[in-house]
Amino acid sequence: PDWAALIAEGFSMAELRAVGWSGDSFTGMLEAHSDRVRAVCVTPDGEYAMTGSCDKTACVWRLIDGAHVRTLEGHTGDVTSVCVTPDGKHVVTGCGGFSDATARVWRLDDGAHVRT
């Protein structure tokens, strides 16, 4: 399936739905979070997607086959934003609110936490 066009289904579900480029056919679900998906980002090359969730984690997905690659853990509150650096090498996750209020940087290739 062509996982390149992604939508977070209403942000009220703990899943990410993927549709084809044309948007006319449902091709699958990416499921790993235990709470709502709050943010979605795709790498510049379209190879990976990242999701942030109210379960305090971010997930990395391989879009060619929909595989869950890894879960990024360390925030103490909802992960409300995710983005990737222009070179596609690092993921930045953000946690708003009073419980955490941090941004964390991770290496995309191995999931290592680089800095807060």
From TrEMBL:
SUPFAM superfamilies to which the protein is assigned, alphabetical: WD40 repeat-like
Keywords: Repeat, WD repeat
Pfam families to which the protein is assigned, alphabetical: WD40 (PF00400)
Ranges occupied by WD repeats: 30-71, 72-116
Xref: InterPro entries: WD40/YVTN_repeat-like_dom_sf, WD40_repeat_dom_sf, WD40_rpt
Protein's name in the database: Guanine nucleotide-binding protein subunit beta-like protein
Organism: Chrysotila carterae (Marine alga)
